[in-house]
Amino acid sequence: MAFTKKVTLKSSDGELFIIDRAVALQSRTIQYVLEDTNPVDAIIPVPAVDARTLSKVLEYCKKHLIDLNTDFEDYSKWDKDFVDAEVWMLYDLIMAADYLHIPPLIDLICDKIASMFKGQTPDKIREIFNIDNDFSKEEEEDFKKKSGWAFK
Amino acid sequence: MTYIPEVIMVDILSRLPVKSLLRFRCVCKAWCTLISRPQFVETHLHDLAVDLELHLGISNKRTATVLDSCNGLLCVIDCFYGFYSLKPPQKLILWNPSTRQCNHIPCPSFVGYQNCMYSFFYDPDSDDYKINGIDIFTLKTNEWRTVEETHSSVIRYWSATYFNGNLHWLAFRYGEDERSSMVAFSIREEKFQEMELPSQRAVFGLRVLGGCLCVDGLYTNDKWVMEEYGIKESWKRLMAFPYRVGDGSSWKLPRVLRFLENGVLLVLHDWKLVLCDSKNNTWKIITSYCSSAPYEREVGLYIQTLVSPYGSGDRLTGNQ
Predict the structure, then answer these.
(1) With left for phi above 0 and alpha for psi between -120 and 50, is residue B45 left, alpha or beta?
(2) Taking a C-beta distance cutoff of 8 angstroms, is the pair B113, B85 a contact?
(3) Which residue in A44, B177, B260, B278 has the fewest CB atoms around it within 10 Å?
(4) DSSP string spanning B34-60?
(5) With an 8 Å Cβ cutoff, are A117 and B20 in contact?
């Protein structure tokens, strides 16, 4: 049976994306589905990712199809612009990249988030991730006393 | 709380410098547990890039000497150490400059005189950090033990090189068959053995490069690597050294610190760090450092880590 050249993905909110098989293969999750079932003209559901996020992920996958005419610096410039986004968008993207299993995209976003974290205070981190502070005032003071230099 | 899979959180946090991590331990208890966990300390250790310049921050009136470094822990003594050492040190310190933790270790008798030898290294067999001289110090038990010396060659350089479960020193064999040799000490069996060097000529700078033991010729520009560990015949001369010296200071020997990717070497020469591309025969100076001392200072590789100088990961909030 011949491999189909096109693959159709269906986002969690029901939108259909018809893309080249080569683009879809950058996701290991989809690669496994294709290898297992090899569906002809079938629709592959992507229940964990909504249309807005999926289109962004596919934009990345298209760009990163190996193209010998693009040099390395073009890629890094493009990648930098790609992750220049709001925190919630990066969050959606990394969850999608994790679900679809696209290691270079996970790597790119982790790098971006880490660079946003670097100079932040614990308060700011809690705010970004909506985390409750479960330390008492005394415990928090204790941290500052013992490694105060890290808070300056 | 916004849900993030732990494996991704670890991936993000392991890219951060130690200073940020120390701060983020107080974000919440879950983060604190994650960052303090030995597996995380190890992941972080493997992920961080190598920082080349080492600035010793010890505010000590006495001179401090870094004996050795391993996985971001420095083994420091509080005196000048080497061929001119006159008085023995009082302190031996394991120091992680990133977390600012110090572990003061009782000084053994052998440290402090020129003919002693030492090495500070991580022993993967016992998952422990050890300091080795004629005696062995293990971080897990915090104790020294004595080892019997059974080799006939005389060890000539005081720093040892750890590789493949053994410590190695350059040595000299006296008698009829006089020549340079190498003494190896097996950590697991605690036994000495002697190994052959590539040539009878003087060599120096024993170290591990690109997963092999490597030495430099003392009066030549040779670089030798032992391709198969322990096999004398596998000593192989490396390609011609590409770095040309044009400023009249050619008596100073360039020393290769690291093999980087694609045939690029990181070289120390004449107080400069130089990147040499052995394929294209080009080089570039990264940085110079000046030294007021008459002898060339050692430059070591140092990385930022959370590894604890106390031998366990749970004392991150220990002595500062």
Answers:
(1) alpha
(2) yes
(3) B177
(4) HHHSHHHHHHHHHHSPPB---------
(5) yes
Q: Which residues contact A86 (CB under 8 A, 6 or more apart)?
A: none
- Let me know how long chain A is: 152
Both structure tokens of B184: 């190896």
What type of residue is A95?
M
Interface TM-score (ipTM) > 0.90: no
Global pTM reads 0.54
Neighbours of B6 (CB within 10 A): 9
User: Distance between CA B152 and CA B178 in Å, rounded?
Assistant: 12
- Find all residues with CB under 8 Å of A72, minimum gap 6, and list them: none
Query: Taking Cα atoms as reference points, which of B127, B199, B135 lies closest to residue B167?
Result: B135
Inter-chain residue contact B317 with A146, CB threshold 8 Å:
yes
Tell me: the pLDDT tens digits for B179-197? 788 888 887 887 888 888 8
Q: Is-contact B133 B120, C-beta < 8 A?
A: no
| Residue from A75, A84, A73 nearest A112 by CA | A84
Q: What's the rounded Cα separation, in Å, for the pair B125 and B160?
A: 18
For the residues of A6-73, what is the DSSP string, one character each? EEEEEETTS-EEEEEHHHHTTSHHHHHHHHHH--SSPEEEETTS-HHHHHHHHHHHHHTS--TTS-HH
Distance from CA of B36 to the nearest CA of A (A): 13
Q: Which DSSP letter does residue B118 get? A: B
Those of residues 106-135 in A touching chain B at CB distance below 8 A are 106, 110-111, 113-114, 117-122, 125-126, 129-135
Provide the number of CB pairs (under 8 Å) joining chain A to chain B.
81
- Identify whether the C-beta of residue B310 lies closer than 8 Å to the C-beta of residue B96: no
A131 and B4 within 8 Å at the Cβ level: the answer is no
Token match 């890629």: residue? Answer: A75
User: Pseudo-torsion of CA B130, B135, B140, B143, nearest 10°?
Assistant: -150
> How far is the alpha carbon of B112 from chain A, nearest alpha carbon, in Å?
33
| Averaged pLDDT in 10-residue chunks for chain A of 152 residues | 71 92 88 76 86 95 74 77 91 93 90 89 88 87 80 76
- The edge-to-edge listing of strands for the beta sheet with B135-138 is B119-123, B128-132, B135-138, B143-146
